[in-house]
TrEMBL record, chain A:
It comes from the Bacteria. It holds the Pfam family SBP_bac_8. This is Putative spermidine/putrescine transport system substrate-binding protein. Residues 1-22 form the signal peptide. It comes from Sulfitobacter mediterraneus.
From TrEMBL, chain B:
GO terms for biological process: transmembrane transport. Residues 188-376 form the ABC transmembrane type-1 domain. Keywords: Cell inner membrane, Cell membrane, Membrane, Transmembrane, Transmembrane helix, Transport. Belongs to the binding-protein-dependent transport system permease family. It is a multi-pass membrane protein. SUPFAM superfamilies: MetI-like. This is Putative spermidine/putrescine transport system permease protein. It holds the Pfam family BPD_transp_1.
Amino acid sequence: MKMTKALLATTALTVAAGMASADGHMASEMTIVSWGGAYSNSQQKAYHDPYMEKTGVKVINDESSAEAVAKLRAMNEAGNVTWDVVDVVAADAIRLCDEGLAMEIDPDEHLAAAPDGTSAADDFGDLLVSDCFIPQIVYSTTFGYRTDMVGATAPTSVCAVFDTEAYPGKRSLEKRPINNMEWALICDGVAKDDVYDVLETAEGQQRALDKLGTIKDDVIWWSAGADTPQLLADGEVVMGSTYNGRLFSVIEEQKQPVAMLWDAQVFDLDGWIIPAGLSDERKARALDYIMFATDTQRLADQAKYISYGPARASSAPLVGQHADLGIDMAPHMPTDPNNAKNTFLYNYEFWADYRDDIDAKFQAWLAQ
Amino acid sequence: MAALTPISRTPVSFYVPVVAAAGAVAGLFVGTAQGASLLGVVLGAVLLAAAAFVMTQIIKVESPSRWGLVVILAIVGFFLGGIPAMIIGGAFGWFFGWFSFWLYEGRYRARVAPYLTPGQVLWHFTFRVICGAILVFLITPILVVMPLSFNAEDFFTFTPEMLRFDPEGYSLKHYRDFLTNSDWQNALKNSVQIAPMATLLSVSFGTLAAIGLSQPHVPFRRAIMAILISPMIVPLIISAAGMYFFYSRIGLQGTYIGVVLAHAALGIPFVIITVTATLVGFDNSLTRAAANMGAGPVTTFFRVQMPLILPGVISGGLFAFITSFDEVVVVLFVGSAGQKTLPWQMFTGLREQISPTILAVATILVVVSIALLTVVEVLRRRSERLRGMSPA
């Protein structure tokens, strides 16, 4: 039976090939978890590639940062942590640190000092918001708008988002209360300094939801950073919130008719954690990677590929030009004085205390 | 095919309103695209009814008047929306020219049985239109993806350049990205390593299980069958979470073998079902005859039973392969980044970075699947012909 023999031969070959590919991994690999997209690309070029060249360690990218907290919890429960270094936002890092899922890192012991000798702790300064968290970049969540869809007067205030008469059309907002509640209160007449005092009360939360309710029919809710750029490029929305680096890519790299509305941009931090419970060998390698990837030059290098501000004070003067476009990156940084005229600081403690409660209310309101 | 029914021309009061109705539907689409649905309906109905009347009653010569309509609608299309609209307009013109004369000359009657009532004739054609609409509905999402994968921009958007058929608007850069990007190449390599192994395990175990369960003397056959089929019925996310914790404990989570085993478990039910179905027609006296002539069970299996149930085994294997190749939920749990498969890469790509590289990959996969299915079908026909099972 020719057919049977052919099948058996294929079988044997497949088994052999499968076995051959199964071993030979693991020895010098590390899994680094990040957000994917342009952001992972910038890390690949600024950190991973030079690190692989220097040490020979193979970096495997996992784009799971969006569900890092849940996955780390599951890994911890299963007693099988497969990640070595994880890129998370500061709020997630604080949660992971509180739950004992991330290991504490002493900045002065494990991080490189600045070139002028300033200690790492001083160089990062206030941005070290958690004992487990090594900040990498300052990013902001802000709005972009279609220049060809806003008519003669381009919006200058974040309240344009709530003004459907002057700027008709859909807008995209993130499908979570953070930032949206604050913007709603500011545009409802609450002073910037009082926003979190108002938001502590049930009436204040209702007030924010009511303000959001005035545009609810015009909102497309996004959950991935890539959604708003796609919606803007399609002309599906007239304006939308997303991370400033994504908007930079839409405007400068993709040349779409989109402009930034920096008003009331919300600053946040993104950085590394190392999961707790790694073997000594993996822990040493993860720490070695972090020491390499967060030194002054490396952080400044990342800004060549994406418009996020480096977290070290000593990196700021080294920020140069975009690697491909050759434009100065400094004016595109959220921290640039021209962009940061009216900024809003994300309040970690407030959201750590009220997140669950307000999340529930927000989701219930969305479902109405 | 010869005409079944003698045909005769139909009265104006019949075919002009019918063309008008069809024109209204076409006008609805064009009008909606231009932002005025109602106007489109009215204009479509009036203009095409008038065109049908002019062609059949005033010009009366079929070929020139039909070509005239194609040209006129193409020009109208060009002024409404450039070259793409011109092509659509020409297609509309061709269709309505044909449709008008088809009705006017009574050709629609020619190929249906003479004894059908008008209502039955109407249903005859309505049925075909519904079937066609369902086909279009099924296949449009796949067809839309293909031109978008040649987009010169990094968005899922038909750019104005693309709609003008400007070569500037098209590029192969997303295909280049797929072929050069190490993430995509790793994912391809993983998929190609995992799916055949998982298929192999599913086919071996599934076939053995099906043969065993078709023996009447096996106790608790129905219960065992239900358990083996359960991965198909239990929600995938539940199996995946269960596998995650179980595999983590025994050190299989995040390994190549773990993913292969998980995918094999998902593929086994398909093999069991298809092989069981072919075994229903299997004559057990053949195995007894083989035994009678001195063949052992293994020889009997490979020489007698296997060739006869091979079609079921192969189609079960194909299902198992597709299951593993398309699977994203289980691999997200059981695999780690080192086992990232193509669907996983597409999933994260869609979520984090809406890049047309995904569409390029999808197009390649569609083409490969079509090629594979064609090959299988050609081989099947060839073997049937060789065995003399088919007159062709």
